[in-house]
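Quick note —
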Amino acid sequence: MHAEYDLIVVGGGTAGCSAAMFVARCKWKVLVIDRDGASGYLSTLANVSCFPGFPESLSGSDLLVKLKKQAELEGVKFHRDVVSAVAVSENAPCRIMTENAGEFTGRSLIIATGSAARSNYLHGEKELLAKGVSYDAIMDAPSVARRVAAVVGRNRRSAEAAVYLSRFAEKVHFIIPSSKLDIPDFLITKIQSTKNIELHYSTSLKRIKGSDHVTSIDLLASGHEKDLEVSGVFTYVHEYQPATSFLNNVVELGENGAIKVDVNFSTTADGVFACGDVICGRPQLPAISSAQGIVAGIGVDRFLSKI
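Predicted structure written out below.
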C-alpha cells in the first residue's frame, strides 16, 4: 500500500513540474506520475529561447531535466507509470490507478497531461524530432534563420507558421497535401504576397532525411518523387487532442476535449486542478505552461490549508 500524498500531479512536463515544485516548497508531500517525459511536447522543441531566467537558448529536453531537478530538490517524488483511471469522492482522498504500481491516493490532484501522444509518424519524423523536425514555428523559427524550411499542412496553423517562418528563413516551401488551402482569404493573400514562400499544392511528404539533423525531404506530386534540400521541417498535419481519456467524466470537459477550469485553475471536481496544454487542447509556450502550474499550485496550497 502506497503512502498518501498531499498532492499528486499527473504529468511531468513544464506545467506539472512547476506546480509540483511550488507545492512541495510550501511543505506539502508531492508525487508526480509521468508516463515518459521524452514523449511530451516539450521534448520536441529544439530551442526554448524565451523561457525567463535562461538568456541562452536550450533544448526542450534540457529544460525538462532542469525543471525535474529543481522539483526534486524541493522534495518532489517522481514515479514513471501510466495512469489508467482516477476516482474522486466528496470528503475522501483522490484515488489514482496506474498500470504498473497499483493505486495511489492524494488529498488533491493536478492534471497536467498535455496533448495526446501520437503513435503514427512519417519515415524519419520521430528520429529527427528536435533535430530539424518541429511542431512549433514560434519556438523553433530561429533554428532555420537564413536557411531553407518546409511547412506541411493545409490548415490555418500551418499557413500562419509559413508566414511567421518567412521572417527568419531564406526560403519556405509550403507543402500542401491538397488542391487548396482551408484558410481565410486574407491569409491566402498574405502568403501569395510573401516572396520567399513557395507553394506546393497536391503534394505529400513521403520521408524526412538526415542523420544528426534534417538535410532533405522526399515529396510526391503527380505520381513523381523529388528530393528537396531543407534544414527544418514544421509539420501541422495532425491535430492535437488533450490527454484526458483516463478521467472517465471526473471533471467537465469543453467541446474540444480540454479540461474546463476557473481563474484559479480549479476544475469542476473539488480538490482537482488542471494546467498546461490539457486545458486548451494545443501546445502553449513553455513559459505560459509554467506560470499556469504555479497558479494551480497556489490554488492547491490554499485548498490544503483550507484558506
